[in-house]
Design brief:
The complex is a heterodimer of chains A (about 500) and B (about 120). Chain A contains 20 helices and 4 strands. Chain A has about 500 residues and is mostly helical. Chain B is mainly alpha-helical. Chain B has a single domain, classed as Helix Hairpins (Orthogonal Bundle). The mean pLDDT of chain B is about 85. Classes of the chains: A mainly alpha (about 500), B mainly alpha (about 120). Chains A and B meet through helix 5, helix 6 and helix 20 of A and helix 1, helix 2, helix 3 and helix 4 of B.
Chain lengths: ~500, ~120
């Protein structure tokens, strides 16, 4: 039987389910793990349904204020990422001492991220993003240490301020069009574009306004970092991508932000000596790859989410966070293998989904983006050579924690192998040669130059005042861009 | 004029957020900023007629534009609730933090937690 339409009730029930189950976990703490796992599995099924149905499903609130949800294959990619990462994280925490509270928050976070992926109007997106902030804050501060509370507070300050700017922007859009739809952006004044994009860029951790991201993602616990870096930041990235697809006027801004953050992130990761901070900065630069080519964003987001979650889980089991110390003592071979496969995928080597995603993205670039994105790809290869060339040996016994890793890593890396088949056209000789060439060049540069350099960036821009202050600079930059784009429209 | 006042409030909050050292003051500054945002929604909803959008006489249909627009107000109600809950959460966090850092100065906290 051909399935061409998904009943609306399915979508509604699926959105409501995580919240319902999330709070039930609190009432039935003995079933916490099973309940949480079933929600993640249902999300996997829902995402696959979206790929089978293919035609976009829209749900609109009565009357035309534009409050609506869209479920199409693009959101399918993001939902699948969310489902698989949540699944892996839950299995990773299965035998830990975590309480029902932790699982409640993971499922609430999962649900709100799903809701954000379906939103097609500014107000439901605002609500979803704020619920995400609260759930992530509670997860970050799960250990209740003063340090984690400070990191969480810093995150709330930055994100809440950004969302206030966003709300003012939304008011401007409503004033201009009497609707909250994403499409309203085309009729809105440049101030509205500035403020809304400022909010989304900050929340998504993109370019200079995203410098809150490294510390937040690096200081959180391993499973939480995997969730935050793998899926949570993608919520506002998907919103930006949707705006770019629906409103061609703003597409250049999104593409430019993508290139900017890809390069900025790469500069930081090349010289980073802390493994978790390296992964967090690499999230920043990989988000740039997603934004640089909005039409093919979904696939790249999926591969990046899987890889980054796997890498964070592996990095959590390494004996040290500092690459200098890691280079002195060999690690267990099994652990190295897991990290290396993930690193191969993110560097874009064939046989893994990262290759297909990178090829697709490179094809969808505009001419002015090509050079910058190739530099960013090489930089990524340089940075992940740090993982690939870690000393390893068979003689070292793997730490106990590695046993917990097998199943979640198998899910994530298995996902990379399977999704690799989504795009078989990528396997032409030229593409393969280019991918291997870029990676080898990166490795040579790493072994020849970067490994010997030691260079530390100042962390002053990551102080709270600077994070908030830089929003005003981003706003000015965005305003100039929006004006420029507008004047262009007027002439054309 | 009204809009200028609203934006002045938002900017006051924003600068307070940057220049105030104390965490509690920062949270209050954020509250000022959100008050400005809320006021902006109310300001764009209000229009010349300033009537509530309730038809007291079923025969008389309300002419479009003669009543205050209820949509932004409904929307901002949600935002008020969310903002309030986030502030409550932050204040709880600050209370916890105050045990180790009684002054609650961001500079000092940032220095002590830097790796």
């Amino acid at each position: 039987m051909e399935l061409t339409e998904l009943p609306l009730i399915v979508t509604v029930a699926w959105i409501a389910l995580p919240f319902f189950v999330g709070f039930s976990i609190y009432l039935l703490p003995q079933f916490d793990r099973i309940l949480a796992l079933s929600v993640a599995l249902i999300s996997v099924i829902y995402a696959s349904l979206l790929f089978i149905v293919r035609s976009p499903q829209t749900l609109e609130l009565i009357d035309n204020f534009g409050v609506m949800l869209i479920a199409d294959p693009l959101s399918g990619f993001f939902i699948l990422t969310n489902a698989l990462v949540t699944l892996a994280v839950l299995i990773y925490c299965w035998r830990s001492e975590k309480t029902a509270f932790f699982f409640t928050q993971i499922i609430l976070l999962h649900g709100s991220v799903n809701a954000a992926f379906l939103c097609a109007d500014f107000i439901s997106l605002y609500v979803a993003l704020e619920v995400i902030s609260i759930a992530s804050f509670l997860l970050m501060t799960y250990s209740r240490s003063s340090r984690s509370i400070w990191v969480g507070l810093r995150y709330l300050f930055v994100s809440n301020t950004a969302m206030l700017f966003y709300l003012v922007g939304v008011a401007l859009v409503y004033q201009a069009t009497h609707s909250f739809r994403f499409q309203g952006l085309s009729a809105a004044p440049p101030e509205a574009i500035t403020l809304i994009f400022l909010g989304l860029l900050v929340k998504g951790g993109i370019f200079v306004s995203g410098l809150w991201l490294p510390q937040t993602h690096a200081e959180a616990e391993t499973p939480v970092s995997a969730m935050l870096s793998g899926v949570v930041v993608k919520t506002s990235v998907l919103a930006l991508v949707r705006c770019a697809l629906l409103v061609p006027e703003v597409e250049p801004i999104v593409r430019l932000a993508g290139v900017g953050t890809a390069l900025l992130g790469v500069v930081f990761i090349m010289f980073e000596t802390d493994s978790k901070r390296l992964l967090a900065f690499s999230t920043m630069s990989q988000l740039g790859f997603i934004l640089a080519a909005p039409p093919v964003a979904g696939f790249y987001a999926l591969t990046h989410g899987l890889v980054k979650a796997a890498l964070f889980l592996v990095a959590g089991s390494l004996p040290s966070r500092n690459f200098k110390e890691l280079n002195q003592q060999p690690i267990a071979r099994s652990l190295w293998l897991m990290g290396a496969i993930a690193a191969f995928s993110i560097s874009g080597l064939p046989l893994l989904a990262g290759f297909g995603a990178k090829t697709l993205t490179m094809k969808a670039l505009l001419p002015w983006q090509v050079i910058a994105m190739n530099i960013a790809a090489t930089g990524t290869a340089i940075a992940f050579a740090k993982f690939i060339f870690l000393p390893h040996s068979n003689a070292i016994k793997a730490p106990e924690k590695v046993k917990l890793l097998w199943l979640p890593i198998t899910i994530l890396i298995g996902g990379l192998f399977v999704t690799n088949l989504f795009y078989p056209d990528a396997y032409s000789l030229g593409n393969i040669a280019k991918a291997i060439g870029t990676t080898l060049l990166g490795w040579l540069l790493y072994l020849g130059i970067i490994k010997k350099l030691s260079f530390k960036f100042s962390r002053i821009p990551e102080q709270l005042e600077h994070l908030i202050g830089v929003m005003s600079l981003s706003a000015i930059g965005l305003f100039l861009l929006a004006m420029y784009v507008n004047s262009f429209e007027g002439v054309g | 004029m009204l809009e200028a006042c609203v934006f002045f409030t938002v900017l006051c909050g924003f600068f307070g957020l940057i220049f105030k050292q104390n965490l509690v003051m920062k949270i209050i500054a954020m509250d000022v900023m959100s008050t400005g945002t809320i006021a902006y929604y109310v300001a764009i909803a209000a229009r010349g007629g300033l009537m509530v959008p309730i038809a007291d006489n079923p025969d008389a249909t309300l002419a479009a534009g003669t009543y205050a627009d209820p949509v932004p107000q409904a929307v901002i109600l949600t935002a008020i609730v969310i903002g309030f809950s986030i502030q409550a959460l932050m204040l709880v966090g600050v209370m916890k933090l105050a045990r180790d850092n009684p002054t609650l100065e961001t500079d000092a906290i940032e220095r002590s937690y830097r790796p």
